[in-house]
Write a sequence for this structure.
């Protein structure tokens, strides 16, 4: 299930995305990658890889698979250099991989973009092996804050640009109650953007 808004704006974003958002989100992207403690030989999945900005922070020797629903964004990602990188056109809400296929998953700025963030997180969890880790960098409405009228109105306008700033991570995480939240920290804009590290128990539940 694709988002028609995203499909319409990404051909516009794709050629300029790196210039608009590369530097401003560099530290948060690097932090989320670092939290995965990637080692040579690890299998890493990046759903919604976009233009491939995260690749600059991934150590060599990792087996990276990136999926992206937008052909325009995927075309930009193909310009990036990372040895052994596999890129596939695919919806992050319906991943075409078997259960427990990856050691780690990186969800940077995707849970707020896909139509169903819960479904995206559930799919990432499904393809993660027991004992694996998911790192997330994204914008969320703080779980215990009230959605004000003005923020709701602003969120409606921002959604027309292809992203939703008013999703709560706590609501999404209910779909994977067995998840261990190892780290949940502010990344940007006084906690409006967060970096989160999840761990999957070693024993499948």
């Amino acid at each position: 299930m694709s988002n028609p808004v995203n499909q319409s704006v990404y051909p516009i974003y794709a050629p300029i995305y790196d210039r608009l958002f590369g530097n401003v989100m560099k530290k948060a992207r690097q932090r989320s990658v670092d939290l995965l403690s990637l080692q040579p030989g690890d299998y890493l999945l990046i759903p919604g890889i976009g233009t491939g900005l995260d690749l600059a922070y991934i150590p060599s020797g990792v087996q990276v698979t990136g999926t992206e629903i937008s052909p325009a964004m995927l075309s930009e990602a193909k310009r990036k250099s990372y040895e052994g990188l596999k890129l596939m056109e695919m919806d992050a809400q319906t991943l075409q991989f078997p259960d427990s296929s990856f050691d780690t998953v990186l969800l940077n700025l995707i849970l707020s973009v896909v139509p169903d963030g819960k479904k995206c997180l559930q799919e990432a969890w499904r393809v993660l092996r027991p004992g694996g880790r998911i790192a997330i960098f994204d914008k969320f409405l703080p779980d215990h804050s009230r959605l004000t009228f003005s923020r709701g109105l602003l969120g409606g306008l921002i959604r027309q640009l292809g992203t939703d700033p008013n999703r709560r991570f706590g609501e999404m995480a209910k779909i994977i109650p067995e998840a261990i939240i190892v780290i949940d920290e502010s990344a940007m804009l006084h906690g409006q953007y967060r970096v989160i590290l999840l761990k999957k128990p070693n024993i499948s539940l």
Summary: The two ends are 28 Å apart (CA to CA). Helices lie at 4-13, 17-21, 26-35, 71-77, 117-127, 149-159, 169-173.
